[in-house]
Specification:
α8 (270-279) runs parallel beside α9 (302-311) and α11 packs parallel to α12. The protein is an alpha/beta fold. It contains 29 helices and 37 strands. The protein has a seven-stranded mixed sheet, sandwiched between helices. It has a seven-stranded mixed sheet with strand order 16-15-18-17-19-20-21, sandwiched between helices. Strands 27, 32, 33, 34, 35, 36 and 37 form a seven-stranded antiparallel sheet that branches.
């Protein structure tokens, strides 16, 4: 876990072998701290108390300990309280186990670092997942430190007890203000931990430089050549100096404090080096190493290395990375293997692939795009894109953030952080493994490759600009780093050759942009300044020989058209004039409040010269590239102006009923837990479909509109059900394992009389067996058939799907996905984001659908999926939407062991 000062501490559940460590911990507590914890002075903790403290069942009693440098420095625990519901007179009081007493103590020399707050957050998450709804704690009024921790964690003071003790309580429901405080603490800790790595004042490079080509030697050379303003300390037992800088045999011999250590060592030497760095109190680590990331050698795997580093409070970049760079002039740090990084600039870049990252750095340099910082993430065993997003969001030297990702460590956290960051600065991401073949390749190297639908949903909701290729990454970055965001998708095209302008117009339309006619007033102004024979519509076609001055005047006029959001300038040289035209375009773009892009059909050498010399305007080799760049950025610009939305709060949900239905569908109750030590014990392989009737009842518990139904197992019961719901009716087979019951003759529609119902029921009972469960429902008015679904992704948690419904749903695959928690704006985006969405808004004279009813259905389904993590799959097909609302006609629900934590977020650093 990360503390408020950016250092790391190791968190785990207490165990029976922790007695001696707990005793040593108690002996180091001050008299005042002991008094505040036990409300009385005492010399030592008794053997009986030690035995009690280390004995937990991980359910009703749970204790967590924090270790720094291998020593226990803090402990927090809860004990479930048995309160009772008195009920009515004469009845037996019913036990209600929903409250727990909580306490914590932090060693005096580690107080003020946020340990207590973070421990309470972890405890709260674990308790919530075990059915505990409230924490209570008693503390002395003069214990201001503990009261401060309780208040910052969200506790509320309730009363001053007669004994002079203050009782505080904390409701564990995921209140927005509590989650906001948790996110703020996480954010601050992440930024401070990254400052130790990206803004060091002293760097030790640990490795051997026997050969001229060694990594350690290269990194020392790059630090010196790059003008690093701090202290460089080579650590190499085989050399007295490296590039004229004194070398040390061990890091312990370095006389100065070391902020950052770069380890360029074989894997079998890493554990010892990390331990030495920890004893030296190094701030952070960058591990440039070779070897097997899954090594089973003692302390050789990534997980072992990260745990070792965390034990000493250090963050770790890598292993298997290429280093880090920060071009901040007051720092000038090139602690990487990149010999010639791009110049200083405003683009930050993190890459999971070191080699690809280095190649892209070169391409950025060719385009004249400088970087603020670069981090090669390597195996991402500890430091991930989540940490860097927090740092770069607050970094005044960074305007644009680039990510090359192969996997997600904690995608739900990435989503939360990226939403906040993207409101301030654009994030452009290439996520590989989009196809099944690509995922196979990634899974051989990096765990965590996920479905492309999930990635699309994450990026869309979080405002991340997703690009499909490295070329697009460079194109979009070029635009973002030099131009303002477009206010819309309307593009004007100015060019001196009709063919290029037409190709650009076609490309714009194909990418979802529009090329509208210019306003008559704009065309009138253009006709007065352009050469004879030129066209003033859109595209604006200039003469082949149009000079720089004409380009300037025309672009200026077009930019003033209120119905234009961006301008693409195309140019094909007639004889000469490339530089003059380029300078003219760049000069106009420099003062424009709308983006200007240029497509110059010239040699690659000339294009490179233009990119590096002309400043603000981005130059593209092909017209399609310029159009594509605008098309990628325009949706992000719209996202930044869209209301953020809120996760709706429903006060009519019956979670108790929902849990009862789901638990009954499993062979045994499954309790989600949040501690790695006991996770395996909580998970069962059992998975099964709920009956249709149970699925309907589950929806009713969350007030998700489901068509009225009656159960039946005979023809007579089917007739009774039909009489109850009213004719005409539908009679269905209750077979949740069948996605399309109509395909096997399991559905009879428009039954208008008892005789028709009886015949249909006998037909189903004869075909599928006597006593087979049936469902009777009324027919509904015509409407638009949609489908709402949930799929549990192992990494992302629940994904909510909205699409075209009915038999055609699987054929057309017109679907869109969303992660949870889902805001109302997210739900509205699902409803409006289909190719077939015009069917909901009066297409060709059809009645308008109640869109807000669909939004509410999606919001309630999302809340159910998050609150009940055992829902592995849910399908409402169809959900019929009409002017009067939306209602589900059928439901299929599969339940299984929980693979994600419920609403109160898990409080843990990502496992290696």
């Amino acid at each position: 876990m990360l503390l408020s000062d950016g250092r790391a501490a190791h968190l785990r559940a207490i165990g029976p072998d922790d007695g001696p460590a707990l005793r040593r911990f108690g002996e180091k507590l001050s008299t005042a701290t002991v008094h505040f914890r036990f409300f009385a002075p005492r010399k030592r903790i008794s053997d009986e108390e030690i035995a009690h403290f280390v004995t937990v069942d991980y359910h009703d009693r749970l204790a967590l300990v924090a270790l720094v440098e291998g020593e226990l420095v803090a402990v927090a625990r809860y004990d479930r309280c048995t309160t009772t519901n008195p009920g009515v007179a004469g009845s037996v009081a019913e036990p209600v186990l929903d409250e727990a007493e909580v306490a914590f103590v932090v060693r005096d020399d580690h107080q003020g670092r946020g340990l207590g707050t973070v421990l309470l957050e972890h405890l709260a998450s674990a308790a919530s997942q075990r059915g505990i709804g409230r924490f209570v704690a008693d503390t002395l009024p003069e214990n201001y430190r503990m009261l401060t921790v309780f208040r910052s964690a969200g506790f509320v003071e309730r009363a001053l007890l007669d004994s002079g003790v203050i009782r505080v309580t904390m409701e564990l429901a995921s209140r927005p203000e509590y989650l906001l405080r948790v996110e703020e603490r996480d954010w601050t800790a992440a930024v401070r931990s990254m400052e130790r790595i990206l803004r060091p004042r002293s760097i030790a490079v640990v490795g051997t430089s026997d050969a001229d080509g060694s990594l350690a030697r290269d990194i020392v050379g790059n630090l010196l050549a790059g003008g690093f303003t701090g202290l460089v300390c080579p650590v190499d037992p085989g050399a007295s100096s490296v590039f004229g800088v004194a070398s040390y045999n061990t890091i312990a011999e370095v006389p100065a404090h070391i902020d950052l250590a770069v380890l360029a060592l074989a894997r079998n030497h890493l554990a010892d080096a990390i331990r030495e760095c920890g004893l030296k109190a190094v701030g952070g680590l960058v591990v440039v190493a070779t070897g097997d990331a899954g090594s089973t050698a003692a302390e050789g795997s990534d997980r072992d290395l990260v745990e070792l580093a965390r034990g000493f409070g250090m963050r770790l970049v890598g292993p298997e990375c290429m280093g880090v760079i920060n071009t901040f002039p007051e720092l000038a740090m090139n602690a990487s293997v990149v010999a010639a990084p791009p110049p200083p600039g405003r683009v930050a870049f993190a890459s999971q692939s070191g080699a690809l990252g280095i190649a892209l750095l070169g391409e950025l340099g060719i385009r004249g795009l400088g970087i603020s910082s670069f981090v090669s993430l390597g195996n991402k065993a500890d430091v991930s894109g989540n940490d860097l997003l927090c740092f770069w969001a607050d970094d005044p030297e960074t305007d644009v953030i680039l990510l090359y990702l192969e996997s997600f460590g904690n995608p739900r956290k990435f989503s939360r952080i990226a939403r906040l960051v993207a409101r301030k600065k654009p994030i452009v991401a290439v996520k590989s493994a989009r196809t099944a073949s690509g995922r196979r390749g990634v899974l051989k190297q990096v765990p965590g490759a996920v479905s492309d639908e999930a990635t699309d949903a994450l990026f869309r909701q979080a405002g991340v600009i997703r690009v499909g290729t490295l070329e697009e990454l460079l194109e979009v970055t070029d635009l973002l780093a030099s131009q303002p965001l477009p206010a819309g998708r309307r593009v004007a095209i100015v060019g001196n050759v009709g063919g290029c302008a037409i190709l650009t117009a076609d490309a714009c339309e194909s990418y979802g942009l529009s090329v509208p006619e210019l306003a008559p007033a704009t065309q009138d102004r253009l006709s007065k300044v352009i050469s004879f024979g030129a066209k003033t519509g859109n595209p604006v076609e200039l003469a082949v020989s149009a000079a720089a001055g004409e380009y300037s005047r025309v672009i200026d006029i077009v930019l003033e058209d209120a119905d234009i959001d961006a301008v693409i300038v195309t140019f094909t040289p007639h004889r000469t004039g490339v530089d003059e035209i380029a300078r003219a375009v760049a000069a106009v773009a420099a003062g424009a409040r709308k983006p200007v892009l240029a497509n110059f059909i010239v040699s690659e050498g000339t294009l490179m010269a233009l990119r590096s010399a002309q400043g603000r305007v981005p130059f593209f080799a092909y017209p399609e590239s310029a159009a594509r760049a605008v098309a990628r950025v325009a949706p992000y610009a719209e996202w930044t102006t869209r209301p953020e939305g809120t996760v709706p709060i429903f006060d009519d949900l019956d979670l108790v009923a929902a849990r009862r239905i789901v638990d009954a569908g499993l062979s045994r109750p499954v309790v989600g837990i949040g501690l790695a030590e006991v996770e395996a014990a909580s998970k069962a392989p059992h998975s099964q479909w709920l009956t249709s009737a149970c699925a309907f009842e589950l929806l009713e518990a969350y007030k998700i509109p489901i068509l009225r139904f009656e159960r039946a197992s005979s023809a007579a019961e089917a007739v009774e059900g039909a009489e109850a719901v009213g004719y005409p009716v539908a009679l269905k087979l209750d077979a949740p394992n069948l996605a399309h019951k109509s395909d096997v003759g399991g559905v009879h529609l428009h039954l208008a009389s008892p005789e028709e119902v009886s015949v249909a029921a006998e037909s189903l009972l004869t075909r599928f067996g006597p006593g087979v469960p049936l469902i009777v429902q009324p027919m509904v008015p015509d409407g638009v058939e949609t489908v709402v679904g949930v799929v549990e992704d192992p990494s992302f948690g629940p994904l909510v799907m909205f699409g075209l419904g009915g038999k055609e749903a699987e054929l057309f695959r017109d679907q869109i996905w969303s992660l949870v928690p889902m805001t109302t704006e997210d739900a509205r985006e699902l409803v409006s984001g289909l190719r077939s969405s015009p069917l909901l808004t009066g297409y060709r004279g059809a009645p308008l659908v109640d869109l807000e009813a669909l939004v509410e259905v999606l919001s309630r389904v999302a809340r159910l999926a998050e609150d009940v993590p055992e829902i592995a799959e849910l399908s409402l097909n169809p959900v019929v939407a009409g002017p009067a609302g939306a209602v589900a006609l059928d439901a299929r629900v599969r339940v299984a062991a929980a693979t994600h934590e419920p609403r109160l977020m898990r409080r843990a650093m990502r496992s290696a």
